[in-house]
Amino acid sequence: MTTISKRDQLPSLLLLPFPPHPFNRTLLNAAYRPSLTAVLSKLKHANPHGASKLIIAVAVPILQGPPYQLRSKTLPWSQAQSLIAGLYAIISVICARLGISTEIDGGQGSVDATVVLVDHDRGRKPLGAEERALRGGSTSSSRIETNNTVVVDLATFADAYHPWNYIFHVRTEQGIWLNEVYLQMAEGKMIGALAIRQEQLVGVEGGLTLNHGLVGDTTVGTGVGGGEGNGEEGRQVSGVPVVCLGGTFDYLHPGHKLLLTAGALLLGVPSKDELSLPATSPRRREPCKYIIGITGDELLKNKKFAEYVQPWEKRARNVIYFLSRLLQLSDKGWREATGPAAGDNNVNSAVTAGVHIDEKDGDFRAVFRDGAIIVQCVRIQDAFGPTITEENINALVVSGETRSGGKAVNDKRAEQGWETLDVFEVDVLNADEIPEDVGEDVKDTEDFTSKISSTVIRQQRAAQATGKNELKI
């Protein structure tokens, strides 16, 4: 068991109130950029031991369906991923301007940010004292409640995500209200040695948010509005058993985080009861599976600055580590790590930030939510990977850069007599419709996408190693 003792090594939390409705990147920038700039600036040098970690929890009524039927939820996938893409784009623009590295393990002066959508109704009020007592708000009893998606509500988030270095909230009416509701829900986790101190609660400047329509309306198409999507804005997704995507995931950065999060949102998560039913029961379900094909080292030898490409094993661990922030739920938060301690001589398993990974050559696996979700990272040596070797895959997630690959995969599966995959395309991380600040270098903003590419990160590592300020790509 590993216990985190130094506060500055803990993640910090930024609670973002409801996004503009409807939204686009210009409106998201107006709403969130002041808050994100303040928090990223503060965290740049907050951890003297390495990268500062930040969880950005966005409150949004994202899940649709009857409130008491937890296994019948749907979400508007295209709008959800577009919201996440907009936030990562703004984060990347800010970090490029402030000289903050954004990749996992970026070292001192970097910020490793993760965007998490938290299902929460605008109309929900803070709990009264009697209701908090009835619901165990001041006790250690668990309030973790899951549904058929990977998205959780605010009460579950408060119960599973803790402790924190700082808790940032936005100094607007909605931001202060959200912070009050969250702190009431989390108070049972902030006792004794984990008690939050006043200096850890930080208010930051808010932006301008415009909401049209009825506040609290969570009918289809209104939980998340707008988005630049891919023509499927109104489509509701309830989740599928097996999702697949691929990439190099070298120096895992915001573009990778968007892709991995978007794929996770497609998972249809079974309940404990469905998993425990006899094999003969028609209602029994197997764990959902998230397969990530990661390019093998051999295929990357001709990459620019190839000597700085991270080994496959490190890239796979970073993918699982990142996904654990979205998938792992425990009322102990991240205070405990299970499995062998870091450094143990066990070649078949490893612990990354409290996550047990079953490691075999070219095949790393981790299990989340009491066996309901399996994440499998496999080494790929061609453009198809497991999509043409495993028939039971339902959905493929691609980016604009790999769109043609989705068609090639389905053509190959059709040749083999297999069902084609449902292909979902994520938005591109670029600075379109993100206006620059007064006095900001427009070219720096427009070119931020190059600054978070794995190639440029390797270039920077090479320059640091050679003592040169800049190396040409």
If you had to describe this structure to a student in words, what would you say it looks like?
With 473 residues, the chain is of the alpha/beta class. It has twelve helices and 16 strands. It has helices at residues 25-43, 77-98, 129-134, 154-160, 173-186, 254-264, 272-276, 312-327, 403-415, 442-446, 448-451, 454-466; strands at residues 12-16, 52-60, 75-76, 111-119, 152-153, 167-170, 201-204, 236-237, 242-247, 288-295, 349-352, 355-360, 363-368, 373-380, 395-398, 422-425. The strands form three sheets. An eight-stranded mixed beta sheet has the order 11-12-13-14-10-9-15-16, sandwiched between helices. Strand 12 (355-360) and strand 13 form a beta hairpin. It starts with 11 loop residues before the first strand and ends in a 7-residue tail after the last helix.
Per the principal axes of the C-alpha atoms, what is the gross shape? globular
- Note the gap between the termini: 44 Å
Judged by helices, strands and strand pairing, the structural class is alpha/beta
The biggest beta sheet is recorded as:
8 strands, mixed
Which parts are unreliable, with pLDDT below 50 for 5 consecutive residues or more? 1-5, 134-140, 212-223, 227-231, 336-348
The DSSP helix count reads 12
Major beta sheet, strand line-up: 11-12-13-14-10-9-15-16
Give the overall average pLDDT: 82
Helical residues, percent: 25-40%
Give, in order, the helices and strands: EHEEHEHEHEHEEEHHEHEEEEEHEHHH
Query: What is the β-strand count?
Result: 16
Give descriptors for this structure.
single chain; 473 residues; alpha/beta; 16 strands; 29% helix; globular; disordered N terminus
